[in-house]
Amino acid sequence: MLSDIIPEGFKDDVHHTLTEYNFKNIIIDYFQSNGFFLVKTPLLEYSNKDTGANTFKIASKKNEKKLNIRDDITMQVARLSQTRLSKKTMPFKLCYYGEVVRKRGTMLRPERQFLQIGAECIGENSFLADVEILELAYKSLSLVGIKNITLEISSRVFLDRFFAKIKDSPKKDEIKRLIRLKDLASILDILEKKYHKFLKDIFSCTGSYKDKKNNLKKLKVDDLTSKEVSNIDTIMSNFLKRNSKINIFLDISEIDKKYYHSGLRFTFFSKNIRGEIAQGGRYLVSKGDKKIIATGFTCYMDSLLRASSTKILHKKILVPFNTSKKNFQLFIKKGYSILRYTGEKNINKKLARNQKCQFYLENNKIKKT
Amino acid sequence: MKKDIIIAVPRGRIIDEAKKILNKTSFAPDPLLFDSKTRKLTFGSKKKNIKYIKVRAFDVCTFVAFGAAQIGIAGDDIIQEFAYSEVYAPLKLNIGHCRLSVAAPLKLINKEDPSTWSNIRIATKYPNLSKKFFASKSVQVETIKLNGSMELAPSLSMCRRIVDLVSSGKTLKENGLKEVEKIIDVESKLIINRSAYKTETKKIESIINEIENII
Question: Is there a contact between B90 and A183 if contact means CB atoms under 8 Å apart?
Answer without folding.
Answer: yes
